[in-house]
Amino acid sequence: LLHTAVGIGLTYYTIAGFFNTTTVTAGMGNLEIRHHPVPWFGNKKIKTSEIRQFYSKEKISQGKNGRGFTYEIYALLAGQKPKINILKGLQDAELALFIEQELERFLGIKDEPVPGEIPR
């Protein structure tokens, strides 16, 4: 029974990985992150009034083919949760910086330096 459950879980994970896309929508007082068409955890809805800053960060992973780099975008929030992941697994630093810049521009957030972010 355990093996069947693990098999089903891995199959679902693989299907979601191949078919899902992530959509980030800003408007009407919310920033919404949605993974679709296969239902997946991680969908978020954040009030834009709680967002203080966006920043991009490089993630380094070590594999059998050497070091690999991916990029993530975070939002710094006011209140209890200091930061929240918006996007991860981006292959290009310039793309991460572009998305960060466009979110800040659209929401009227002035860009400020954050320790550990990708330098511009």
Which descriptors apply to this entry?
single chain; 120 residues; alpha+beta; three-stranded antiparallel β-sheet; 2 helices; 6 strands; 28% helix; globular
How would you describe this structure to a colleague?
This protein has 120 residues and is an alpha+beta fold. It is built from two helices and six strands, in the order αββββββα. The strands form two sheets. The protein has a three-stranded antiparallel β-sheet with strand order 1-2-3.
Alpha carbon gyration radius: 17 Å
**In which range does the helix fraction lie?**
25-40%
Number of helices: 2
Going by helix content, strand content and strand pairing, the class is alpha+beta
Number of strands: 6
Q: What topology, given as strand order, has the largest sheet?
A: 1-2-3
Provide the β-strand percentage band.
35-45%
Query: Span from first to last CA?
Result: 51 Å
Overall 3D geometry? globular
Mean pLDDT: 92
Identify low-pLDDT runs. none
Specify the biggest β-sheet: 3 strands, antiparallel
Tell me the series of helices and strands, N- to C-terminal: HEEEEEEH
Set down the secondary structure blueprint.
Elements: H1 2-19, E1 21-27, E2 30-36, E3 44-47, E4 51-63, E5 66-77, E6 83-90, H2 93-107
Antiparallel strand pairs: 1-2, 2-3, 4-5, 5-6
